[in-house]
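Table S2 (continued). Query chain:
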Amino acid sequence: CHGGVEQELRRPATHPVAKSGDCAKCHASHGGETHGLLVQKPTQLCGSCHTDIAKKAAGPGGHTVVARGECAACHEPHGSREAHLLKAGAKELCVTCHASVGKDGDHVHQPVKDNDCLRCHDAHGGPAPPSLAKAVPALCQDCHDGATGPMKLAHSGSDVTGGRCLDCHTAHAAKRAGL
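Corresponding output:
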């Protein structure tokens, strides 16, 4: 009946609970109210083991799809060819929902050009919306040193380490140089 699951469990990355054969930990054998006969809604079920991710999703920068418990939008529940049970590589996954990011200007931020969303965002949620890995300006200063060099020169010699970067700059793409 579940030959597809058996095939998934032969993939390089497998969910430990599924691999152990403890199906009843996640599935109700005689019916249930959820898709896939899950014993709980995905938010509670996945969150019961992945408490760190549940906490991120419930925080101020929680990724909406994670907070809604739509874990299977990005992850395979049993087994995958990708690390972390992802359905595809991280660079491919983000654009399935966020295809328009970076398309609104000729000047594109390098992480967007590289399709490297996780350089600035946390896929599950972060300390600031929209799922930022760090709050601004600390996030920007991981790559742009506002106290010295070109960044200081670009800001008329001012130290912008405590600045509000997004008041003047956009994070993904813009029609003008310097975003």
